[in-house]
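Progress note, sequence design subtask.
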């Protein structure tokens, strides 16, 4: 059963985080969807959700379907960023009764070469028995992961072992992520479609979703529309939150 938080009151809306993240990444923005009760689940092998050996897109879609079913949310709108966007696409195509609309943030349905491939081995190599704080971890990792914003984001998943405040553990199942890493970069399988409202919102400075990705997206989601947040990168909701919220709240008014 996926761990989750809720923010707000109203109709149900589910937001799914990306790779290496958790539902907490959306806590600040979740309160800015008036009229919606926002559910923020942690994907398997992330955050406080259970760990599993398997980590495929089909697994994520199964988990999300069961999450919505158990809480009687279906059908409802879903928003997913990056890997969360891929999971939401798979959910709509596999379990259409779970979904009334999807908004995919900066992720295309195509296959791509794995990104951030060195992160998991780097995090696994960190000897947690020899450090006592995130600050120490940051000092050890900053040569391998020099981008400070990325490193701080990854370190959000480093936490204290319950009952042992000086002992650290990862809230990421790094072994499973390492073993299944190539799976999450595969394309969304074709020869199927979902006719409901689908918004693809991309960062203008990102190459995760390119203009040429619109046609394949439309084959899977014929009612797709496409919008761009100018100047934003892959983390468009963190870089330009007001612009992203404006687009999403307008879109939600059209989703039943």
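Output:
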């Amino acid at each position: 059963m996926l761990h989750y938080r809720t923010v707000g009151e109203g109709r149900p809306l589910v937001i799914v985080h990306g790779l290496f993240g958790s539902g907490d990444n959306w806590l600040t923005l979740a309160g800015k969807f008036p009229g919606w009760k926002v559910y923020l689940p942690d994907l398997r092998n992330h955050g406080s959700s259970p760990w599993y050996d398997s980590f495929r897109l089909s697994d994520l879609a199964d988990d999300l379907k069961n999450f919505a079913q158990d809480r009687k949310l279906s059908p409802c709108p879903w928003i997913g960023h990056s890997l969360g966007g891929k999971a939401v696409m798979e959910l709509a195509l596999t379990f259409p009764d779970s979904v009334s609309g999807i908004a995919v943030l900066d992720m295309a349905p195509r296959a791509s070469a794995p990104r951030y491939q060195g992160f998991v081995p780097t995090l696994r190599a960190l000897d947690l028995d020899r450090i006592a704080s995130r600050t120490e971890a940051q000092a050890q990792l900053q040569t391998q992961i020099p981008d400070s914003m990325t490193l701080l984001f990854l370190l959000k998943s480093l936490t204290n072992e319950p009952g042992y405040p000086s002992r650290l553990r990862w809230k990421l199942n790094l072994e499973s992520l390492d073993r299944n890493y190539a799976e999450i970069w595969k394309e969304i399988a074709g020869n199927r479609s979902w006719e409901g409202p689908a918004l693809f919102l991309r960062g203008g400075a990102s190459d995760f979703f390119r203009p040429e990705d619109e046609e394949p997206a439309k084959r899977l989601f014929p009612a797709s529309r496409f919008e761009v947040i100018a100047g934003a990168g892959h983390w468009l909701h963190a870089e330009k939150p007001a612009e992203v919220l404006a687009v999403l709240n307008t879109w939600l008014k059209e989703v039943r």
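The first helix runs from residue 27 to 30. Work on this subtask will continue into the next period as scheduled.
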